[in-house]
Amino acid sequence: MDKDTKTISMSIRVSEVELEKLKQAARIESYASYSEFIRRTALIEAEKVIKNAASEM
Q1: What is the distance between the alpha carbons of residues 56 and 16, in angstroms, rounded to a whole number?
Q2: Contact criterion met (CB below 8 Å) for 27 and 36
Q3: pLDDT tens column, 3-49
Q4: Which residues contact 19 (CB under 8 A, 6 or more apart)?
Q5: Is residue 26 a contact partner of residue 34, using CB atoms and an 8 Å limit?
Q6: d(Cα 10, Cα 30) in Å, to the nearest integer?
Q7: What would the 3-class secondary structure string for the chain be?
Q8: What's the CA dihedral at 31, 35, 37, 41 to 10 degrees?
Q9: Hey, what's the torsion of the CAs at 27, 3, 51, 12, to 10 degrees?
């Protein structure tokens, strides 16, 4: 990440069941934390959406 890049904090609301699923998936994938799992997974999905939108133009 660029030294001058500003980081932003965000939060999401999930149920206890959803949180446990996220924690379990993070453990299975050997992420340091479930928040890191969520961040990386969201970025992967965002890239897919952007790529698909660009190809439809």
Answers
A1: 38
A2: no
A3: 788 999 999 999 999 999 999 999 999 999 999 999 999 999 999 99
A4: 34
A5: yes
A6: 23
A7: CCCCCCCCCCCCCCCHHHHHHHHHHHHHCCCCCHHHHHHHHHHHHHHHHHHHHHHHC
A8: -160
A9: 50
pTM for the model: 0.74
- Sign of the Cα pseudo-torsion (46, 52, 53, 54, in order): positive
CA angle in degrees (0–180, nearest 5) for 21-26-32: 145
